[in-house]
Amino acid sequence: MDASIALVAIAPFVAALLAPLVQRAARPFAGWVLALVPAGLFLLLLTMVEPVISTGAISARIGWIPTYGLDLSFVVDGLSLTFALTISGIGTLIVLYSGAYLKGHPHLGRFFAFLLAFMGAMLGLVLADNMLALFMFWELTSVTSFLLIGFDHTRQASRRGAIQALVITNIGGMGLLVGAILVHQLTGVWDMSALGDEIRASGLYGLVLAAFLAAAFTKSAQVPFHFWLPNAMEAPTPVSAFLHSATMVQGGVYLLARTTPWLGDTQVWTLILVCVGGATLLWGAIGALRQTDLKQMLAQSTIASLGLSVLLIGLGTEAAIAAMLLYFVAHALYKAGLFMVAGAIDHEAGTRDITVLGGLADSMPVTFIAAALASLTMIGLPLTLGYFAKEEMYLGLVTGQWPDIAVLAVLLAGNAMLAGLAMLVLVKPFLGPVLPTPKSAHEAPIAMLVGPIVLGAASIVAGVMPDWLGHTLLEPGTLAILRETVSSHLSLAINPASVLLWLSVATWVLGYLVYLQAAAVRTLARRFEAALGWTADTVFDVVMFGLIRFSGAVTRLLHHGRLEVYLVTVFAALALALILPVLMLGGYDVLLPTAELGDWSAKLSWPDLQLYEWGIIALALVGLGAVLLAPNRLVAIVALGIQGTAVALIFLLLGAPDIAFTQFMVEILSVVILALVMTRLRLDERDHRQLEDLARDGTLALVCGAGVSLFLMVVLSGTLDTRLSDLFAATSVPIAHGHNIVNVILVDYRGFDTLGEISVVMAAGIAVMALLRRGPKRPVPPAPTSRRSQKAAS
Hints:
With 794 residues, this protein is an all-alpha fold. The protein has a domain at 720-772. It has helices spanning 3-26, 30-34, 36-46, 49-55, 78-101, 108-127, 131-149, 156-187, 205-219, 228-231, 237-245, 250-263, 267-289, 294-315, 318-349, 360-363, 365-379, 385-398, 405-430, 446-464, 466-473, 480-487, 497-516, 518-532, 536-558, 563-584, 597-604, 611-629, 633-653, 657-678, 691-717, 723-736, 741-749, 751-773, 787-793; strands at residues 58-65, 70-76. Strands 1-2 form a two-stranded antiparallel sheet. Strand 1 and strand 2 (70-76) form a beta hairpin. Helix 5 (78-101) packs parallel to helix 15 (318-349), helix 5 packs antiparallel against helix 20 and helix 12 (250-263) runs parallel beside helix 14. The model is unreliable at 470-496 (pLDDT under 50).
C-alpha cells in the first residue's frame, strides 16, 4: 500500500482543523503558512508521475468496514493525477490569494478551514476508487461549498446561493448513491477500477446511466441544472476562482470521464452527452455575453466550458478525451487567473462592472499582464495551451473521427463566443480611456498577484511544450495525434493542417466579431429573457416556495399543539401495527381452537399459581382500579406506581432480580418526576372528559393492551432460537470477563446502544431540571408615565 496517496486526501482536512490556530498565531502570514500544505501535496503528486507512467496506475487500500468487504481504496492514474495536480497547484495560489484578499476579516481563520476542507474533499473525490468513498467525498464537496458560498451569511443573496447550490447538487448526490448501489448489486464490487463491460450488458444499464448522469449534470451545471452556478458568485472571489477552475463543478466532468470505460461507448451515452453538452456550451456562452459584471461573465463562461468538456467526453474517441484533458488544464489555468484578476480589480478599483471600467493598464500594469496571459489562453492563440486544446478538438473532426458536421459547428460557435468574451474581459477594463472608479485604482498586493501571474506563465510554458505535458501527466500514447500536430501540421498524410489553420482563423475572426457586437448580443439576450418571462432560476424559486408552503400546511395539519389528538393518533397507530400485520399473515391462527373441545380447555385453562402470585395479580388489579377511579391527577400518578411495582415483582418471581431492580428504579423516578412536573399544573383537577371521549380512550386502551398480549402470545408460541443466548453464555467470561451476562450484554455487546439510551435519559433529565428551576413569570411593571399624561388621564 502506498500510504502517500491516502495522505494526499487526508492532509487538507488536518490542515483545516489547525487553520484557525495558525491564523491567530501567524496573522498576516497565515496564508503563506497554510499554502505550504497544498504546495507539499503538489510536490508529492509530482513524485508519482514516473510510477504512473511506468505502471499505468498506483493504488492504496485501507480497511474501512471489513465485515462488509468495504475498503477505503484510492487509485492514481493519468486521469486522477491530472485533476489532483491541478487542484493542489491552483489551491496553493488560492490560499495565498485569500490571505491578502480577506486581510483583516474577523473570520479569516474559519474561511481558511472551509477552503482547505473543500480542497481535501475534491482531492478525495478524484483519488477515490471505492464508489461509496467517492459518494462520501462527493457530498463533502457539496457541504463545504455550501459553507463557502454562504460565508457572508449576513447577506440574503449569499444564503440563497448557498442553499440553491446545496439543493441541486444533493439531488445529484442521491443519484450517485443509487447508481453506486445498483452497480454493486449487478457486479458485486465497489471499486470502479474492477468494472468491465457487465454494466452495458445488463438490463438495468439505462437506470444506472440515468443515476450517474443526474449526479454529473447537477454537479457540473449542465442544462437544465445550470442556474445554480451563477448564483454561487455570491461567494468571496477566492472561492469563485477555486470552484470554477479546479474543484466542485469539475467533479461531474471527472465522474463522466471516470465512468466512460464501463458506461460509455453506447449510442444513448453519445447522444445524451453531445446534445446536453452542446446546448450547455451555447447557452453558457450567450449568457456570459449578456453580463457586464466580470464575475458573472466568467461564471457563465464556466457553464459553457463545462458543456464543452461534456460534449468531448460524449464523443468518446481518443482524440476527444485527449482534447478534454488538455482543455481541462487550460481552462483551469486561465479561469482561476481571470477570477483572481476580477477580484483584484474589485478590491482596488471598487467595482467589477466593465461599462464603468477603463484604462486600468496604467494604474495596474502587473494585473494587466496577468489578465493578458489568461485571456490569450482563453482565446486560443498560438504559444498558449488553449491553442493546442482547441486544435485537438478540431483535429478529430477534420480527420474523420467525428462524422457529424453539426458538432464542428457547435464547437466553432462556442469557441468563438468564448474568444469574444475573453477580448471583452481584457480590453474593456484595461484599455481605452481612463474612467472614474469608486476607489482610486492601484496595484494589488503581491500575494494577490502571484497567483494570476504564475498561472498565466504556466499556460504559456505548457503551450510552448505541450508534448511534455501530454506525455508526462497522461497515459502513454493518449496524445499521439497531438505530438504530430505540434511537430508539423503538414506532416499528416491527409494534410489537415490548412483546415486546422483556417478553423482557428475562423474562430478568432468570429470571436472578434462577437467582441464588436457584444452590446447587440447583450440586448437581444435580455429581450429574449424578458419575452420568455421565466428562467430556470425563477422555476427553482417557485418550486422551493411551493415546498415551503406545502410543508407549512402539513405542519399546521399534523402539529396543531393538541396533546390529546397526538396521543390518540399514536396509540391508534400502535394498535394497527400490532394487530393488522400479524392478522394478515395468519399469525393469530395459533391462538384459535380447532374443532376439538379439548383445545378450548387447554387454551383457556387457569394457570396453577401460588397464593403470593395471585396476590401480585390482585395488586396489579387494585392499581388498575385506582387509576381508573382516581379523583385527581396526583392519585392517578401514585396508582401508576402501583402498576409498575406489580410488574417489578413479577420479574422478581421469574428469576430476573436485576430487571426487577431496574423496574423499581424506573417506577420511582417516573412517579417522582411526574409529580414534580405536575406541580406546575393543578394536581387536584378532575378528569373533565365527556362520556364519548372516555369510551373512545377506553376502547383504544383495551385494543392496544389486547394487541400487545396477543402479539406476545404469538411470539411465545413459536420455536425459541437460542443461538444468540448460547453465544452470550459461552463468551461472557472468556471475552468480556463478566459473569453477569445481562451486564455484559449492556456494556459490551450493546455498548453503543446502552450509551444512546443513557444519553437520552440524561437529556430528558436535564430538560426536566431546567423546567423545574424556572421561576414563576414575573409581572411586567407598567410603563412609567409623565406628569402631563397623568393629568390628561385624570
